[in-house]
Amino acid sequence: MDSIGKSFIRKDAADKVTGRAKYVDDYSRADMLWGATVRSTETHARVLSIDIREALKIKGVAGIYTHKDIPGKNIVPLVLPDYPFLAEDTVKFRGQAVALVAADSRETARKAAKLVKVKYSPLAAVYDPLKAIEKNAPKIFGDDNIFRKFVVQKGDADAAFAECDVVVEGTYTTNYQVHTYLETQGMMAAPTDTGMVVHGTMQCPFYVLNAVADIIGYPHNKVRIIQTTTGGGFGGKEDVPSIVAGHAAMLAYITGRPVKVIYDREEDFVSMSKRHPGYAEVKYGASRDGKILAAKIRYILDGGAFSTLSPIVLWRGTIHAAGPYDIADVSVETFAVATNKVPCGAYRGFGQPQINFANEVLVDELAAKLSMDPAELRLKNALKPESLTITNQKIGPSCGLVETIEKAAAEIKWKEKISSGGTPPPESKNDAYASKNIRRGVGMASTVYGVCLGAAGKFLAKAGAHVQIQPDGSVTVAVGNTDMGQGARTVLSQIAAEGLGAPYALVDVIEPDTSRVPDSGPTVASRTTVMSGNAILNACKAIRSRMDPLIREMAGANANAAVHTADGFFVVGGGSDHGATGKKISYADAIKKCHAERVNLTYDGWWTEEGTTFDPMTGLGDAYIVYTFSTTAVEIELDTATGEVKILKIVGAHDIGKAVNPMLAEGQIQGGALQGAGYALMENLVVQNGVMLNPNFSGYTIPTSVDAPAEIVPVIVEKEFHDGPYGAKGLGEPPLISVAPAVANAIYNAAGIRIRCIPALPEKILDALKKKKKK
How many domains does the chain contain in total? Predict the structure, then answer.
């Protein structure tokens, strides 16, 4: 193939390194106002009054507005209708938006916001999700504080446990994770004679369109959303941009002037959604030879004050609750719970990293109890083609889990290093400190990831694409999915180029503008390559069906001759093909001929997920169209004197079907691995009684280049998916998911201590070492 499997440079690379790319804060208007938000200082309270008199006295303030001024609906259109754009009679978390200020400068707007006086009457609050589901807990949502509950009942887990030779169980907790994208949330809204235009940083332009239309009361065809170059998302620009855009559009609607809203880093921290803290009780039972026979899991996500995307985050976590293993009898019960804290929403991995941490650490605990190599235990129980998932879905032929385990083990030198865990580095013989305190270890963890939205997201499981070949042969592709740094424009350009037989350099995927692109669904769930890729491919096939008869005519071949592409040419037939000439026709000549003959070289492609099912009573069904399979292996050094962990090497082996662009795939694996390392070891958001204590980079630590392992090795396994574009599956989210449990398992191999709560901060490790020493 000319374009698939090739490592083309990203389409947006030159614009970004030269500064030509325009982010939302690069857009401005001469008559523009700035917006600022008045936020709650209470975690749960009634709003008694809002006094704006002092703030209005500041020169340059154009207006201050509350929920009473909203011209349309005061509900953010997400999954459940519980999150208001602006608080009404109560606030439910510290940082909730209460009022909006419009002023002639950013500084003036923020100064005025600080002078707005809100009087509150505090209400009883609850901050612990386990306490929130107790009968007498303060009520935040409904009559039980449960946003959503799911169950999976496959077989009879209780009966199966009675037959097990070995049973292990544990309780595991994970903390928040902040997206820490380079570009904070931002929007610019401008009223026009015919409607409202919004520029901004986002993942899902059509989500934002719905929100803006709702808050200002406009029909959808009067609202235009344009995605600007987006400086990272990781899920944080899926749900939240609807709120930011709604605020900017409301101010623009009321004032009749353009309004820009850009959050600073601290405001972004305190008000935007996070990865859900997780709590999991997991129990596995196995036979003496290591076959896992039964699993029982109770999994709770802390959703914060409003549901945002918690119901579907929980659903994904539920489907993957027992990991990538073939287990006959499984019982799963999961809850997304309301608390008086910052709402949680989408984050790379979407409900899986929390439960994957639990089940992959417990798999290692089971291996230890069986005196079995953890890699061998995983291989023995790994999902394979024809295996059944916990929802009773039969795994198809695109399943390379075994290969990912084997390749990750080989790259990390597993057999050699697992047996030498707990020893000093070989080079430490002449270093007294290292010889005494530094211990090395290796760890492994695997995961399975359902690609696209699955049965729970059927109403969004579609993608549209517009493809047009211009008279000069250049190709314009329009899709509603966004590029936020992952390289989507490049990959989709490669799919279009291959489908049309066009040179890659001639293909351009335009940035989303809802007035110019079809709705391709959200840019989430590692779905863009599969969904929009297939929609593009369908359009390309339709266009080729119009081109090929003329190409055959140009080659002097009959109507039955096959037409394929090679080295930038259309090749008609060849070999034993009946009626073939083997003649090559250039792309440029073919396009010139088609336009001369008035052939329509424009087509709108469409693709939908089909065949997914889910029974909410039993939790059984074909949950996803296909799965990506992954294994992470790590090598670490642990300083037993300080509790510090240094990751020396991360290997990420991923079955992704087909790597459309191997270089970009490797970049995804490397970036996800480092993000997972931060989740494992250092990213520690401290929230006490609903108050965030470290909402900035001086208090919330993320990995930098200094913390990066010397080696992050991507390993690509290709088990092609028959319904994927050229065999491709999704990759965006899996590289992060299994890093944290692999690190925790490596810590055990190095020092003999179990990490059941992350991040594994040095003080936690020192505490565990002290407890081990006392035993």
Answer: 3
DSSP 177: B
Rounded CA gap, 255 and 265, in Å? 27
Q: What is the pLDDT of residues 236-273, one digit of tens each?
A: 999 999 999 999 999 999 999 999 999 999 999 999 99
Q: From the centroid of its chain, how far is CA 584?
A: 44
Q: Is 221 helix (H, G, I), strand (E, B) or coil?
A: helix
Q: What pLDDT score does 579 carry?
A: 47
**What is the pLDDT, as a whole number, of residue 574?**
66
Answer positive or negative: Cα dihedral of 214, 216, 218, 223. negative
Tokens of 267: 């405001």
The boundaries of the domain holding residue 416 are 278-455+616-774
Of 608, 624, 656, which residue is a domain's last? 608
The predicted pLDDT at position 428 comes to: 81
Instruction: Provide the mean pLDDT of the chain.
Output: 97
Asked whether 667 and 318 are in contact (CB, 8 A), the reply is no
d(CA 384, CA 477): 37
The verdict on 69 and 192 lying in the same domain is yes
Cβ atoms 629, 718 nearer than 8 A = no
Query: Is the full-model pTM beyond 0.90?
Result: yes
H or E stretch including 401? Answer: helix 401-412
Q: For residue range 631-647, list pLDDT tens digits in order.
A: 999 999 999 999 999 99
For residue 259, give the 3-state DSSP assignment. Answer: strand
Q: Are 569 and 586 in contact (CB under 8 A)?
A: yes
Is the separation of the CB atoms in 401 and 629 below 8 Å?
yes
Residue 731 CB partners (closer than 8 Å, separation 6+) = 526, 529, 628, 654, 656, 665, 668, 669
Cα–Cα distance measured from residue 99 to residue 406, given in angstroms and rounded to the nearest whole number: 56
Q: Exposure pattern of 111-120 as b/e (b: 16+ CB <10 Å)? A: bbbebbebeb
